[in-house]
Amino acid sequence: MTLNNIKPGSECFIKKLTSSGRLGQRLVDMGVYPGLRLKVIRNAPLEDPMEIELDGHYLTLRHEEAKFVEVQE
Amino acid sequence: MIKKKKILVALAGQPNCGKSTVFNALTGASQHVANYPGVTVEKMTGSYRDHGRKIEVVDLPGTYSLTSYSLEERVSRDFLIQENSSVVINVVDASNLKRNLYLTFQLLEMEMPLVLDLNMMDVAERRNIHIDVKELSKQLGIPVIPTAIKTGRGKKKLIKAVTAASGFGLHSGLHLEQPFKLILVDYGPMEPFLERIQVKLSKEIELDKNYPLRWLSVKLMEGDSEAQNLISKNCPEPDEILKFVEKQRDTFEAKYDEAPDRYVAFRRYQRAETIIKSCVRTTTASSTTLSDKADKLICNRYLGPLILIGIIYLLYYLSIVQGYNITNYTWPILAKIRSLTESILPNPGFIEEPLIRSLSLWFVDSINALLNYIPIFFILFALIAILEDSGYMPRMAFILDRLFQRFGLHGQSTLAMVLGGIYLGGCAVPGVMATKAIPDERSRLATILIIPLLNCLAKVPLYVLLINIYFSEHKGVAMFFIATISLLIALPAAKILTLTLLRNKETAPFIMELPPYHIPTIQGVLGRAVERVWLFIKKIITIVAVIAVLIFVLLQFPGLNLERQAHYTKEKEQEISKFYNRITETQYAEQLRGENLMALILYWDKYKNARMMATNQKLVKKLKEKFEKENPLFFKIVQPKKDKDAKKTNKAFRKLFKARKKILRELRKEKIDNSFLGRLGRDMEPFTKWAGFNWRINVSLLSAFAAKESSVATLGVLYQQEEEGENLEKRMKKGEADFTSLHALALMLFMVLYPPCIATTIMVKLQTGSFKWMFFSMIYPITLGLIAASLIFTGGKALGLNGLQAMAAFYALALLTTIATGFINNKEII
């Protein structure tokens, strides 16, 4: 399952990042890495992008980008 | 002995850690903005004094990491490696220590003399996060100073620690002898790989001298392109090394099923976690913060967009509307500068104007036209600073990204487009300036290129003029059309540019932080507003001055031939002799001979202008006394009272004055007709006739290039006044008897698509860093504008549409194009 499928309000664990280039690096740099627990807070008024919380901080990313984050509920 | 050497301090840290607050607190008002060489990233520098020693501070861009993927990160990295700063202050957010340490490790690996500023301690305490500062300092091997700079806490200690770490202070013991021997992050199974690379690198003398090899080895292992460049530049046989590194990377990946760059990052976080475990204690589970609660409203599905519109409206209202009101108070100051200039310049003759006079006044007028905007800019920049500091900007992007992304733009384009004039009345200069915040290069360029298509304030006078003449019965509809059509053209234009010219430009992931809200500080906001206004004045005014002179030359030369000059001189002489004939029997006839006549004309002019400025009876009385004292004879003629002779002279003089004005107007018009720009306007007629523009319109459009307000001013000269008090609307209607609403529509549309003014063009150059894009930003709107105007005019004529029908047809077409282009998929390169 990938992050873009997680509904607002649910939590999950990050399993793997499947983008090797720029996006993967950016995700890691912003604190998204395997083993962490995250919570999907909400989707934007026009559905995309989404807001997540992890480690006490909040990030927003597009669903396109969330596809590259494998998660487990 | 203490050497009085200048100390260079770099401020590094992740975004939202309060780094700019630290910078402001340290440097106060002594700040400068410049760009890093060759790139468009802003470089903030400032300085402070400690024990008489000057300490220079450079505020590096806030970055999460130091890879070579983003421009800001590359810039920070290059600065750290090349500039040899004495100390680097790493500002970290105490309430978000883990992620912040991720950057700290990278700085330590670069073997920077580091001082850790554990900032925002107050926030951490509020969230019940307790940090053992001593233990943290021990684990990291560097001084750690807890601060809450916003409240002033810890500032003195930080300054002391920086001086100490720079090696000049009394407490340099804080600075560990050889902290870099300490291997901070253990990369576990990757260590043997790193070891092999480092051994290989240590044989390269150039590298060993200039770069920390452990850092370079890690970077090479990560596959960092800039590190590879360093090898290519510094080693005699780079290929051999790079091949070796590549083999190490491949072997690692095959053996551990993990990309080396990802693995490096994981190990850093793991290390951060172990440090946190030993130094940080959180007593109660974090409850929802105030920011969370605020976001429930601000990012709400229904309320969010409404709040956004409210904020945009407020921004527009305060800066454009209220700022414009302030110009009512500042304009007299500028007008005074003009009259002061006028007073030191040589006087004009009856029809002759000294070149130095007309050039100087033109110059002052051009500069004043821009300086007039300064109140607007100041309010705008202050409000932007508030938006930036409060943390609302990322929310704005969050709400609107979906919409803009469809057109190749970015959530962060919102602010730039609002400033540029998303409805009516903005300004492209701050709009283009605000694109700096857009991290995605492709979206940023697309935004820069479409901002001039939006409706800036200076386009409005022409719209108003044309709508009043040709759409007087449908003013509301026409105004709505013009206000919204610009967006319907700009969005598809952005999409088409994205799909074509900008296709291969660098894109960046959207992912960004939604930081907690902050209350901006007055000092921070005002400081930035002043700094940016000053930057605007410096960069823009100088170049505008040069271009203004150029346009002056194009409008004034080659001037009239001898025959025409003689014609006007004859007219002048006729009028003057008519005047003398009229007053020949009065007692003033003799007194007004020769030079006195011209003196009276100037006196009359001066009196008339001064009288217009005098608003109450008291002032008028004072004015009259002043003028009477200056020249009792002239004053009698200006204010004849019961003196019959004076009355007669006054009447005759009025006629002469009016006749002179008429001659001057004709002369000016002929000069423009005959000027280089006038000829160009004629030469362009074959191309512009499809759009319905004749040469007069062409000239007014050409003159608008310096500043768009000029278009209406030039038309004012071209359609001359025949009867006193006729406004431009009547004159234009008379002057272009065969003009229809279709002509007007085509012209308005061309104005929508008019190329950016000089000030904006310069800003485009600054923000794109390239002349190529600057020229493109001028050429493509002209092309687009001519096509659209021709489509309206020639197409509308062929179909027999009137202006209103053509307007509706074009609007429908633009709307369809917008929707259609919105559905084309961008190919995202991830």
Strand order of the largest sheet of chain B: 2-3-4-1-5-6-8
CATH fold naming of one domain in chain B: Rossmann fold
Q: By CATH's scheme, which homologous superfamily of one domain in chain B applies?
A: P-loop containing nucleotide triphosphate hydrolases
Largest interface: A-B, 37 and 44 residues
How is the largest sheet of chain A built, in terms of strand order?
Answer: 4-3-2-1-5
Q: Fraction of residues of chain B in helices?
A: 55-70%
Query: Tell me, what's the shape of chain A?
Result: globular
Radius of gyration of chain A: 11 Å
Descriptive notes:
The complex is a heterodimer of chains A (73) and B (830). With 73 residues, chain A is α+β, with helices and mostly antiparallel strands. Chain A has one domain (3-72): SH3 type barrels (Roll), CATH 2.30.30.90. Chain A is 16% helix and 44% strand. Chain A contains 2 helices and 5 strands. Chain A has helices spanning 22-29, 63-66, and strands at 11-17, 37-44, 47-54, 57-61, 69-72. A 5-stranded antiparallel beta sheet of chain A has the order 4-3-2-1-5. In chain A, strand 3 and strand 4 (57-61) form a beta hairpin. Chain B is of the alpha/beta class and 830 residues long. Among the domains of chain B are: 7-181, Rossmann fold, CATH 3.40.50; 188-282, Helix Hairpins, CATH 1.10.287; 562-672, no CATH class. Chain B contains 37 helices and 10 strands. Chain B has a 7-stranded mixed beta sheet with strand order 2-3-4-1-5-6-8, with helices on both faces. In chain B, helix 26 (617-630) crosses helix 27 (632-638). The longest helix of chain B has 42 residues, at 303-344. Chain B is elongated and about 110 Å long. Mean pLDDT of chain B is 85; it is low at 169-181. At the A-B interface, helix 1, strand 2, strand 3 and strand 4 of A face helix 3, helix 12, helix 17 and strand 10 of B.
